[in-house]
What we know:
Elements: E1 2-6, H1 10-21, E2 25-29, H2 33-40, H3 51-60, E3 64-67, H4 70-74, E4 79-82, H5 97-109, E5 114-118, H6 126-135, E6 144-148, H7 158-163, E7 168-172, H8 175-185, E8 192-195, H9 197-228, H10 232-240, H11 261-274, H12 280-292, H13 295-304, E9 311-315, H14 330-340, E10 344-348, H15 356-359, E11 365-367, H16 370-374, E12 379-382, H17 387-391, H18 395-400, E13 405-408, H19 415-421, E14 424-426
Parallel strand pairs: 1-2, 1-4, 2-3, 4-5, 5-6, 7-8, 9-10, 9-12, 10-11, 12-13, 13-14
Antiparallel strand pairs: 6-7
Helix pairs in contact: 1-3, 5-6, 9-11, 9-12, 11-12
The site of uridine-5'-diphosphate-glucuronic acid has 20 residues, from helix 9.
Amino acid sequence: xxxxxxxxxxxxxxxxxxxxxxxxxxxxxxxxxxxxxxxxxxxxxxxxxxxxxxxxxxxxxxxxxxxxxxxxxxxxxxxxxxxxxxxxxxxxxxxxxxxxxxxxxxxxxxxxxxxxxxxxxxxxxxxxxxxxxxxxxxxxxxxxxxxxxxxxxxxxxxxxxxxxxxxxxxxxxxxxxxxxxxxxxxxxxxxxxxxxxxxxxxxxxxxxxxxxxxxxxxxxxxxxxxxxxxxxxxxxxxxxxxxxxxxxxxxxxxxxxxxxxxxxxxxxxxxxxxxxxxxxxxxxxxxxxxxxxxxxxxxxxxxxxxxxxxxxxxxxxxxxxxxxxxxxxxxxxxxxxxxxxxxxxxxxxxxxxxxxxxxxxxxxxxxxxxxxxxxxxxxxxxxxxxxxxxxxxxxxxxxxxxxxxxxxxxxxxxxxxxxxxxxxxxxxxxxxxx
Length: 434
Ligand code: UGA
């Protein structure tokens, strides 16, 4: 099976590499020649554990190719995956400009009938609109079949998720197209669910919205726990053991970020609104999340009164560990707020440190050394639960901070470890250690 993938962002690159790994011949296409040049040299353009080795292996096997020429990449492709971005527009809806352009490129260069698989997250109804767009531009006699095949991988564990996913959703108009897609994916050995195109598109939004709901729910419970003297970690453990609830995505913290949940929840609210449906539940999920991102600042102001002149060590920039992605990271809200309140900010991140000044215009120093960030600071604020921060002996705060005061947005340490180390410890949904 000859496959082309348009878009070498997160989803596109991982999809292309994984499809080559299971035996297909894949050409990944991107309009950015610099990206393509790097990829052709075997350099992955995103940070993702395990991706580089797999990419190189398949380039050497000559099963994986990269080009910035649509004509070259689409030549003879039986199946074309569209995996371009659908970023958020100012009104919260998804920007479909890139996917439309990719579809027009397919229509222009398709020499034979082709199956177009949409991997990008697109509002319900988009697949069919994209099909119509292609049909109105393709040369006569060429058939276009469409399939919705949403992606469920998480950044930071994308390779693992691709090979160990819970399900592969295939939404098509006909059985033949679903058969082809099922055959392509068979080597993954993951259960396939066949459905119609609209339901497939909705499964993606509903899944992300539900996971975001779980997070906002546990965060609200955490906020209540703080008022009532309960411990949210204990509550989540007790809740998660009920298999109807499940333990995943019940980790309280300073809210969800990243390129998916914020964008997709907003897009679903917007989509519902366009169809005169007021999605109040999801609106509350978003509101809870926005407030949750401010929590550590509120806790600091309660503790210090004013942050003016305080030196704050911010631990973590990325929206979660094992990624260098800063999109919608709570750090983007917290660091400018700290600077606005007159604090001096030194920020540590093991992978994303050099991106700080590109994303945040407020004055701050960025470092890959945790001790440099902590040294002499008045307090620490944990934003990302990087493994090295979680593994760190809380005694380190006593040793390096001016005063051992820690505001932990990710509940990295147990209450007893914090007590034992003698730090003043404010976390999420648990009793303060003073
Ligand atoms: C998410 C989904 O998990 C994937 O299934 C989906 O494919 C992807 O979006 C997408 O639509 O492309 P991702 O954004 O990479 O994946 O990251 P997650 O691991 O889901 O984390 C999202 C955010 O939620 C992070 O900020 C994380 O810190 C937060 N989170 C997650 C919590 O605060 N608590 C939890 O219990 C879990």
